[in-house]
Amino acid sequence: MNRIETARLGAICAKFRRSKKITQEQIADDLGCTVKAVSHFEHGRSTNMMFLLWYFAHGMLEWYYHEYGEGDVNGEEVRSVQGEDS
User: Fold this and answer.
1) With contact defined as beta carbons under 8 Å apart, do 28 and 51 qualify?
2) Is the confidence at residue 48, as pLDDT, over 60?
3) Most buried residue among 9, 50, 79, 80 by CB atoms closer than 10 A?
4) Which of 38, 49, 45 is nearest to 14 (CA)?
């Protein structure tokens, strides 16, 4: 996975998390990791698939198709997520 794909995936995950009112702290507690590790994944600086599995298990795929259908998160959304912390 290249840097752009990683950033796009992280942005989608962050948007899903916020839409469900879930904090990075809650994900970190569920996975037994640090908030910083969750943040790194959402900002495209980590490709640890443990995080991706958590998002899938909590309904991200269904949410994504409902939200975007055949579309995708655009570059502007990726940049806005990278500028946010939690």
Assistant:
1) no
2) yes
3) 9
4) 38
